[in-house]
């Protein structure tokens, strides 16, 4: 469907998820949409495993793998979002007016940065503000990292030594120029006061890139700011022994159960608001 966002339709014959209604007579075009944003330097072969988790459950999926370099260059992300990504999502909603909603599933800062900018555009850009009402839930997997040093460690792992040196030596001055108050803006968007829908935070005590203390900053913001009046919309799954963005591979059963709990909470939230 597009080279920017890879489209994976729901598994043929799969049940249509029920996120917003108690009715059992849901139509095909009402299937919810998942926006899957991978970690920095992620590859489709790995992100597809997460897409399959959703398509098997009856969701249509758009997926994107951020490159290592674009993760450190905010102007490129904003251009991608405004000129390509959100127009694609806007077109999808136009073609599927009965779509029950959108769930975001993002990984590490690579996916988190895109999520942050997309939420910002949904809230502030008149062209895309109507999409915000379709937001039903968010999965944060292995994020956020709120320091440049952690970002450099991730660049070393995802891109290898040459990419790491390129980022550190050549791009570091640009990063300082363009990042500005990036980290504060990042936190504000992840925990925006209008993001009142179920959030699932998945992280690990054994993550050497996004450490527990970094995740706890986001958890505190979600609990005491975004979802302060709706504490039941917050869910978390903390593992003891899975590496960065490897929680599904290490704990497949528990990971799937966490996804199902999020979907159940989305349904509960929708029916309570009805």
Key attributes of the depicted protein:
274 residues; alpha/beta; Rossmann fold; 7-stranded mixed β-sheet; 7 strands; globular
Query: Helix count?
Result: 9
Helix content: 40-55%
Secondary structure category = alpha/beta
In the CATH hierarchy, what is the class? Alpha Beta
User: Would you report the number of β strands?
Assistant: 7
What is the architecture at the second tier of CATH? 3-Layer(aba) Sandwich
Radius of gyration: 18 Å
Supply the CATH superfamily name. Answer: Alpha/Beta hydrolase fold, catalytic domain
Q: How many structural domains in the coordinates? A: 1
Write the H/E string, N to C: EEHEHHEHEHHEHEHH
Give the end-to-end Cα distance, rounded to a whole number of Å: 34 Å
Largest beta sheet, briefly? 7 strands, mixed
Approximate strand percentage: 5-15%
* Adjacency order of strands in the biggest sheet: 1-3-2-4-5-6-7
Low-confidence stretches: none
CATH topology: Rossmann fold
Average pLDDT number: 89
Could you say which overall geometry the principal axes of the C-alpha atoms support? globular
């Amino acid at each position: 469907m597009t080279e920017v966002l890879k489209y994976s339709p729901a598994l043929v014959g799969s049940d249509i998820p029920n996120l917003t209604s108690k009715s059992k007579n849901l139509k095909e075009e009402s299937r919810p949409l998942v926006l899957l944003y991978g970690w920095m330097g992620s590859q489709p072969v790995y992100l597809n495993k997460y897409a399959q988790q959703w398509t098997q459950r009856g969701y249509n999926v758009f997926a994107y793998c951020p490159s290592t370099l674009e993760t450190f260059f905010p102007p490129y992300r904003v251009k991608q979002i405004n000129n390509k990504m959100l127009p694609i999502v806007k077109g999808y909603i136009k073609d599927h007016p009965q779509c029950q909603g959108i769930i975001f599933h993002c990984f590490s800062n690579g996916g988190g940065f895109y999520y942050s900018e997309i939420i910002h555009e949904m809230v502030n850009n008149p062209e895309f503000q109507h999409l915000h009402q379709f937001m039903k839930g968010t999965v944060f997997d292995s994020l956020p990292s709120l320091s440049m040093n952690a970002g450099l460690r991730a660049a070393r792992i995802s891109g290898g030594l040459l990419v790491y040196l390129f980022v550190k030596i050549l791009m570091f001055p640009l990063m300082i120029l363009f990042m500005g108050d990036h980290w504060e803006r990042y936190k504000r968007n992840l925990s925006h006061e209008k993001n009142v829908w179920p959030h699932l935070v998945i992280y690990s005590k054994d993550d050497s890139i996004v450490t527990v203390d970094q995740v706890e900053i986001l958890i505190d913001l979600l609990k005491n700011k975004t979802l302060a009046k709706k504490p039941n919309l917050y869910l978390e799954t903390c593992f003891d022994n899975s590496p960065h963005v490897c929680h599904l591979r290490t704990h497949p059963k528990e990971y799937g159960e966490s996804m199902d709990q999020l979907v159940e909470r989305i349904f509960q939230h929708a029916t309570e608001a009805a």
